[in-house]
Every structure is written in structure tokens, then in C-alpha cells.
Amino acid sequence: MNGDNTPRRLAIIGAGSSGLISLKHAIDALPNWEVRCFEESDRVTGAWGRPYDGFVSTSTKYTTQFSCYPRYDATVRPDGGASRGEFFRDGEYGEYLQDFADHFDLRRHISHGCRVTAVRRPAGGHGWDVTFHVRDIAQSASEQFDAVIICTGLVAEPRPLGDQATLADLRRLCSTAGLAEITGKTVVVIGGGEMAADFANRLAQPAAGNRVYLSLRSGIRVSPRYHPIRGVPSDFLRNRLMLSIHPDIRNWIGQRFVAARIRHQGWFEWLFPSSSKTQNDAGGDVFEQRKRWGRRLNRHARHGLFDMFHNKSDDFLTAVAEGRLQVVGPPTDATLTRYEGFDGDAPQQITPDVVVPAVGFRSRLGELLGDQTNVSDFYLGCCHAEHDDLFLVGFARPVIGNIPSISEVQARLVTRLIAGQTPRPDGVGRLNAADAAARRERYGGVDTRLIYPVEMFPYCDQLAALMQAGPRPRTLRDRWTQLTAPATTLDYDFPDDNRLDAGLPRPPRYLPLPLIMLLFALKPVDWLYRSVPGRR
């Protein structure tokens, strides 16, 4: 309570996946607070509820679900990925979020049709004045809150490429029907991120009748949803034993392993036989071209295997292999008609009808806070280094992984910090400066003012350690499962958690046993490497 016996107030800005999970944990951790969530739209499904027909999530249902609301196990269907049944499809993730909101009775705390336009420190220096525009009455209002959690994420906004009439409106393309309007055109998609690869693949579908080019400055890490050897989701081959190896060692071995796997896939299939028939079993020229392009794109990636974002699209490589999508180098002039060749190919002269500038994002933090605040001002991507009552959830981006599960661990931490259940680390400003410098060095190709790049589980482990909630297996069998089964945030031990996951079967081990033994054999090397001063 405040001094006048009125309840303290928390504002949550945004009711997508990160806003919903923050709201749920705020209600749990702050029972005597008034918690209000502002949402501009009339939905609680966020950006990925049903972005377009045919949507398939890049992470599995098992690894993306909230640990406090588990509904999916790690079972793999015996169809080699034909159904994509292990992933959220079409509107399934939106349905999951709606069920989540209903199950925990969250909707009564959400103010729809309210766009927050400003968050300012009042003259008295305590709390925050939150100004918002109410759609139905077309006017603005302002209310004071004791703490604020910003869950708006990033807004797609291309970097300046010129003023050519061929440039598409990226915001419209991100709408449900945006890309469907582009048919029978010559299209150049500029960018190497997951959004660019997704746009290019969808525009290159045969029914659209487009001639599509993807313009890249360097190679990209293509990590298919389904592992081409094992025939199971790639998510299910990442376990805590693998992730416990120092990233320098994992990068060195992993890059060589991926290159060898692409070059000698037949030998790997014989060495590690799978019970699932993979989609690649058809063979033929398309299969060989997929391998060739996977090798070329990975070879020219600028950063280490675990130091840059991955594109998880099985269909993207198929589109390139079938010739529906051509890869070219960067544009050489402002007309966007001349392009370097990729990987030694000849330069290209292209006259595009449409140029899709999928090369940038914008944060609303500066707009909301009225200053130059950016993500790098927040320790661990969620706690402001100066203000102990201002937080972010949902701005961390995993090189491999998913945002909702990371957001849940962030939400648990920030609500516990607000409640005083977890102490704020001493010297946050100093810690944040060191952390920001380390991320700039490791993730050299990422603008860390906009994005907080992370390795999903090492990062979540760091947050869980602050809450003293790291994985605590109760038996040797539990320990073996946590080390060798698919990594998941279900492993964390939150004693006050009210989740009901007892009905989920114990997850199986999908990584072949010889590779498990190899990882155990690497642990002494890992320990020795970490003992070198300056390495952790």
C-alpha cells in the first residue's frame, strides 16, 4: 500500500505473448497491487496469433509453451515432418494465448483500444505518468503508476534504401493479406534475417507467379525446422548437456560438424539411422541443390554458429534449390537495379516491380520515454540500470530458440524484483556496462541498442540463478533426462509455481547416444578451458 492506503499500481504495456505472461506473474507476485495492462488492439494474440494462412512457427509447441501452462509434450509424429504437427500452425498459437488468458482470468485486467503514447517520470520523482489514447472516445488520458513493464517488442521499419517507387510498405506486408497482393511481379527482397527469408519464400510460391530474388550481404545460418538426418525437430536435439559446453568450443566443433553433415549426409544417415522417414528421402536434384546451397550460405556466414541469428525454414532452401528463388549479393547503387553476385556468381542486372526492404526494426522505447533510452540501458535486457521501477519483457532475441519462453523467465524475474522477493543486484550500472560490452563483442552484426541477443537457455539459466530457481533434479533419472532430453523451461524449479505438468510424459532422448558420450567426453576440456583467466 502507499502512504494513503491506496494500492500500489503496475502498468504493463502490450498484451501479446510477453504482456500476457507478465500480467499472469504480476498478479501472482503482487496480490495487493492494482495491475493494468494496456493493449492497442482488441486481441490478446500479439504479432504471431495468426500472421498469415499457412503460418508454421519456427520453434516447437513443446519448447514455446509457457512452463506455467504446459499443454504439449515432446512426442514426434512418424511422418518425417510432413504434417508439421510438432509446431504451431495457422492460428494455433493465437488459440493457445487466448486459452491462457481465459484460464488465468487475465482479460479483466486488460484495457483494449488504449495506445500508450508516453511514459514520463513526474515532477515529484516517484513512479511514472502513463499517457494513453483511448480509441473509442478519441481522447487521451494520463494515470500514475508505481512501476512499468514495457512489452511492446519491436516495430518493423526498414533502414533507408532510397525513395524509389518500387519500395514496398513493410508494415502493410506484415499484415495478414499483405504479400498475397504481390503476384506476377519481379521482386527483390533485401535482407538476411528470418523475416526476409520468410517473405522471399512466400513470394516465391508457384501460385504467386513471381520472379523472386533475395539480396544478401553475407551468408546466413539456415537451421531447418526438422533435422535432415534424424527427421525430428531440430529443437529436440538441443539439450542441456550440449549447452553446458563453452560457446567457443561449441562454435568450433559445431561449425565443422554442420559442414561435414551437409557434405557427407549419406554417411551420417548410415552412422546415425533414424526411425523417422525424413522429407529429404525423395533424393534427386532438388535434394542435392538443397545441400549445395545450405553449404554455400553457411560457409559465408560472418559470425560463429551460436553467435548470429538462424533462419529456420525448410521451405526456403527448397525454393532456392528448385530455382523459384535466386540468391544475389547486395545492391551496388541507389537505383536498386544492379546487384553483386553471391559467392562468386556473376553480377545481376534486375528491374524489379517491387523491392521488399526487410532490413530493419525500430524500438518504441525512445518514443515512449521521451529520451534516448534503448535496450542497452536495461541490465540483462529487462532491468533498467538506473530506474528500479522500469522494466522490459520480450526484447531479448535468441540466436536459436523462441521469444515467449524467454519472456516468461524475464516476467518471473521482474515481477519478483518489484515484489521484493528477489533482491536487485548490487552495482547494476557497472554490471550492465560490462554485459553490454560483452554482447557487442560477441554479436558484432547486431544493433544491441535495439535487440538484446542471447543464447536462449544459458540466458534463461542466468535469470533463473538470480531467483535461485535453476534446474534441481530430484533423482539421477531426472538428472539424466534434464541433460539429454530436449531442453525446456519446464526444467526450472519455482517452488511457488502453480503449474500442472504432472500429466506430461517424460521427454525422450533424441540425440544419438554416441554424440551424448562425445559431449560427456568434452566436459573435462570444457572445465579446463573455463579455468583460463577471462573465460567463464
From TrEMBL:
Q: What is this protein called?
A: Putative FAD-containing monooxygenase MymA
Query: What Pfam families does this protein's entry cite?
Result: FMO-like
Which superkingdom, per the lineage?
Answer: Bacteria
Task: Spell out the InterPro entries in the cross-references.
Answer: FAD/NAD-bd_sf, Flavin_mOase, Flavin_mOase-like, FMO-like
Q: What class of enzyme is it?
A: oxidoreductase
* Endpoints of the signal sequence: none
Q: Which UniProt keywords apply?
A: FAD, Flavoprotein, Monooxygenase, NADP, Oxidoreductase
According to its UniProt record, the EC number is 1.14.13.-
Cite a single GO MF annotation: NADP binding
* Similarity remark: Belongs to the FMO family.
UniProt source species:
Posidoniimonas corsicana
